[in-house]
Design brief:
There is one protein chain. The chain is α+β, with helices and mostly antiparallel strands. The protein is 31% helix and 23% strand. The chain contains six helices and seven strands, in the order βααββαβαβαββα. It has a seven-stranded mixed β-sheet. Helix 1 runs antiparallel to helix 2.
Amino acid sequence: MTVQIRPADLDDLDLIRRLRLQRSSWLAARGSDQWSTEASGLSIDYFARAVARSVAAWETWIAEVNGEPAGTITVNDRADRQLWTGTELADALVVHYLIVDLRFAGSGVGRRLLAHAAALARAHDRSWVRLDAWTTNTDLHAYYRRAGFRLARVADPNDPSPSCALFERHVDDWLLEGPTLGIPTGLPLTRLARDPIVLPVSG
């Protein structure tokens, strides 16, 4: 199986929106409230607007398996200001919106996207890949542990964010697994924004 990772463009927005809806339905069918607006998750319209901004900023990537879109990830240095400290964010890139098409679940696409995030972090002279996972989704926590991440902590339970399980992995850990994914040649590295992202409590 050949997995290639390319920058997303505006033509991919419908694809990314579809992947989010597909996974939301899959999660709900299994009793998870992840991404539901009732549990303070982002509405699909807010999500689409956020992804559009990330695509325009060259922060979003698409994984393709034999030319077929198979997943997406957004990587930048912004996070909910109540979760990670300024010091933690200064030495990390942050993963958002990691979604794998259900047709390719279990095929390693998600891990390849995470390895790509590590390659981006290394290219930006950052030492860590960090992310916040849905607090109540223990299956998701187990997935990140299997992918080599460790639980740094669970943020203050009084925080309005529904994603307070904070995971991290040092970029050097990927070197132990073999060559990391490189950055496509000819593409400039994005200028990392300085303003942290602030997520709404709901909607």
